[in-house]
Amino acid sequence: MGIPRRTVKTAPAATKTAERGDGMQVCPECSSDLVQPVKWSEQDDRCWRVSLRCPECEWWSTDNFSQPEVDRFDQELDRGGQALVEDLKALTRANMEEESERFLDALHGDLILPEDF
To answer: What are the structural domain ranges in the chain?
Structure first.
C-alpha cells in the first residue's frame, strides 16, 4: 500500500463549525465516529490546530478548532477510552473463565501429571 493521501482544509472558522455538526470525532467522508487526533498545537488561548485521521477510510485533515470543540472532542476520547477499558476487562474475565474451565476439566479427567509443573 502507498502513503495515505492527506486533505488539508483551511476554511474560515464560521464555516468549519457548521460543517462539523456531528463533532470532531465523526469522519465527514465515511461517517465513522472513530476519528483520532494525530497532532495538535495551541494557536492561542481560544484556538487549536489539530490534525485528524479516520482509521476506517484513511481520511486526513488539519484544521483550526475552538477550545469548546476541542473540549467536547476530549470528552468523547475519554468516553471511548473508558469503553475500551471496560471491553478489555470483560474479555479478560471471559478468557480467564474459559481457561479455568479447561483446567478443571483436565483435573477431573486426570489429564494433568506432576511433570506438567
So the answer is: 13-109
